[in-house]
Amino acid sequence: MMTQMPPIPNHVAIVETDRTLVSPYKLFMAAKKLSRYSDLQTALKELSDKPDLVLLSTSLPIQDQVRVLERVKQLSTDHLIPVMFVINFLTPISVVPGTDWGRKIGVIHALSSTDEIYATLCRVLE
Predict the structure, then answer these.
(1) Are 54 and 72 in contact (CB under 8 A)?
(2) What is d(CA 12, CA 25) in angstroms, rounded to the nearest whole number?
(3) Domain 11-125: homologous superfamily in CATH
């Protein structure tokens, strides 16, 4: 049974080192503004326009993920910006930092079904 597609947030920021990874990001291409960062320094520098959702690769070293989360928290003035961690199974080791992020957090991966991604998106956007 297909989950009804939730509205895609207006501004989606993707922090992903693997430029060839398309899935699951293709589902977010409908965003009015899509910002994609392939390295930490660029993400930290350019992640200034408050996104509505952040997709964060678990392929980044844990310290880098924490730095991105700290930056996103700085941008979260009236509410926490939802974060979805993305696991790339082509990376030998992926790490997801331990946080509940105000229950505005989810985990998806390259093999996630469309229904699974939409369900996770609906939950983090509640």
Answers:
(1) yes
(2) 10
(3) Response regulator (3.40.50.2300)
What is the reported pLDDT for 120? Answer: 93
Give the integer Cα–Cα distance in Å for 116 and 109.
10
Ranges assigned E (strand) in 65-121: 83-87, 105-109
Token code pair at residue 67: 């730095």
Query: What pLDDT score was predicted for residue 90?
Result: 86
**Cβ–Cβ < 8 Å for 56, 98:** no
Would you give the end-to-end CA distance of the chain in angstroms?
21
The domain segmentation of the chain, as residue ranges, is 11-125
Mean pLDDT by 10 residues, the chain (126 residues): 72 93 89 93 88 95 94 91 93 86 91 92 91
d(CA 54, CA 80): 11
Instruction: Of 98, 95, 10, 1, give the one whose Cα is nearest residue 51.
Output: 10
